[in-house]
Design brief:
mainly alpha; Tetracycline Repressor, domain 2; 14 helices; 71% helix; 0% strand
Amino acid sequence: MRAPRARDLPPCQGASLASDNIAPLMATRMATTLGEQSRLFLQDIRISHTLFALPFAYVGAVVAGAGHPSLPQLLWITVAMLGARTTAMAANRLLDREIDRLTPRTKNRPLASGRLRGEVMWAAAACGLVLLLVGAWELNPLCVKLLPIAAVGLLTYPLFKRFTWGAHLMLGAVDALAPLGAYVGVAAAVRLPALLLFLAVLLWVAGFDLPYALMDADADRSNRVHSFVVAFGEHATRRAALLFHAAATLLLALAGAAAGAGAWWYAVLPAGAALIAYEASELRSTNVLMMNDRIFKANMLFSLAVLAASAAGYLA
């Protein structure tokens, strides 16, 4: 389900959306050298896509710091984000290994195909938790106290697709820990703006995870994987994606109001409207590969636009 299907936090793009496969000759043997294992590990967890979640983490920091989070705070938030995403992706690949093997789009992923050792993913999950702990420790005690809740979500969210289409929302909740955790890291408190940001990002991520699920609809039905499209059909999935993003946009505006941000913050409203209009056009497409590629890129730009609006709302 996923970035993104619920099985792939956060989304990935380009040709990888089609199959997550690499050249067939490369998919036939176990990597033997440290360099090969490292390369396959980075390919499987897509470390570069950590950048996708960072803008909203920084939005949480900007709001908590009234436009002036410190550089050390931003550094440790980044460290914690890197750890959290590494843990989540490693857990995802480990827990979904059998499902990935049965899904045409994902069967040649390094771990699912047997080219990457499972021990590498277990070590990555452990190292990610260490990074998350270090980041939380350096920020403030409240982050450390709340860390177990975040860790449980990061390690277990892939299981939800086995029971409920709400797995899309669970993925959104895990990604939404980014702005919530960053807010707590700066403010050492949980306040209304942080909760509104959490809900906004939850719906934002779930909103573009829904059309991503269209790519694996047949495989999900065969493998008894729960998703929105399996439960309600393609038409309802496309409409729900737009409704989720409309709600996310309104929640972002409310977060700015609750935080006392300036007028520039409300640039999120036209940005959200533009995103929804673009998605409405793309969601008419029958080419789900290209549709998801374009929707991902549009949402990446939207996250950067929200970050710019949040900074301008305090600094302009």
